[in-house]
Write a structure and sequence with these properties.
This protein is α+β, with helices and mostly antiparallel strands and 287 residues long. The chain has helices at 12-16, 61-67, 73-78, 84-92, 103-111, 118-132, 151-154, 159-163, 170-182, 196-204, 211-220, 232-242, 250-259, 265-278, and strands spanning 3-6, 25-27, 30-35, 38-45, 48-53. α5 (103-111) runs antiparallel to α11 and α12 crosses α14 (265-278). It binds a DNA duplex (13 and 12 nucleotides) through α6, α9, α11 and α12.
Length: 287
DNA sequence: GGCCAGGTGTACC
DNA sequence: GGTACACATGGC
């Protein structure tokens, strides 16, 4: 029997396939993916979310947590500054939620993300999981899905074999991160008890992890609303929507992201990211 | 073939 | 302090 969860606003496609996580795919109108060691197939029906699993789903608290279903989106949106860009961005996709991912999977995935398109990140993650992930129970008759490879497993893999997963120059960075986590030099669970700034400092101590990737991990895994990842898309959104015909310095933009968007700035960032990628076509937009 | 992609590290001024 | 470029790889 699938788990049935009454759901508030939830846009599954925008949430699962919007550049936060890289393992979800849509099959016959349902979203299939892996959360920790569980394979799951998600579908919306009426006002409910239906979750089909291969093992006992329990009360589904793990799924509610992952999807951020306890976030009160209406209350969050009310904390946003009342400006046209954010109004439009929220209006365009009112069910977009921030995920709460496993920190290691999130860190590893975003280490792969630098100067790659989202479809290519998805491809790399799939290759990594196929090569190094542990098989887990899946739907009957299909090949076993796999968990995301642990840091301990990847710490033993040669850089050359990581490059086989098309990681390019990022292979060295992933290997270093896996070794740091496996050896305990970086304690991802302990970051939960640190301030955002202190946690960011720990993350950016890894080679290949700068402020952008660290902020993605802080936001998409730890739910830190004071983390505001600025990538090429968000930069474009800030410039076009908030500083048109001006040439703001990076320092100005950073100050703006830290002060303008309020206590749920991380959520605001995700709405802007989704909006600029999907609802404001430009010549350089991907089709 | 040139440009771009959910960037970062390094070498310069 | 800032700015330019290399770094692998694939899509368009």
């Amino acid at each position: 029997m699938p788990l049935r969860i009454p759901t508030p606003f939830l846009d599954l496609e925008a949430t699962l396939d919007g550049g936060q996580a890289f393992r979800w795919r849509c099959v016959d109108g349902a979203w299939e993916g892996v959360i920790g060691d569980r394979w799951v197939r998600l579908r919306q029906e009426g006002g409910d979310l239906l979750a089909e699993t291969a093992t006992d789903p329990g009360d589904g608290a793990w799924l509610r947590h992952y999807l951020g279903l306890d976030d009160d989106l209406e209350a969050i949106v009310r904390t946003f500054p009342d400006d046209p860009p954010l109004r439009d961005a929220v209006q365009a996709c009112p069910g977009l939620r921030l995920l709460r991912q496993d920190p290691w999977e999130c860190l590893a995935s975003f280490i792969l993300s630098s100067t790659k398109q989202i479809v290519q990140i998805q491809q790399c993650v799939a290759l990594l999981c196929d090569a190094f992930g542990e098989p887990i129970p899946g739907p009957a008759g299909a090949t076993s899905p796999r968990a995301f490879p642990t840091a301990a497993r990847l710490a033993l893999v040669t850089e050359s074999r990581l490059r086989d997963c098309k990681l390019g120059f990022r292979a060295r960075y992933l290997a270093a991160a896996a070794q740091a986590v496996d050896a305990g030099r970086l304690d991802l669970e302990a970051l939960r008890g640190l301030s955002t700034a202190a946690a960011r400092e720990q993350l950016t101590g890894l080679p290949g992890v700068g402020p952008k990737i660290a902020n993605c991990v802080l936001l998409f895994a730890y739910g830190r609303q004071d983390a505001f990842p600025v990538d090429v898309w968000v930069l474009r959104a800030l410039r076009e929507l908030y500083f048109p015909r001006r040439r703001p310095k990076p320092r100005t933009l950073q100050r703006f992201t830290e002060t303008h968007f309020g206590p749920n700035a991380g959520y605001a960032q995700q709405y802007l990211f989704h909006y600029i990628r999907n609802h404001r076509p430009t010549e350089t937009r991907l089709s």
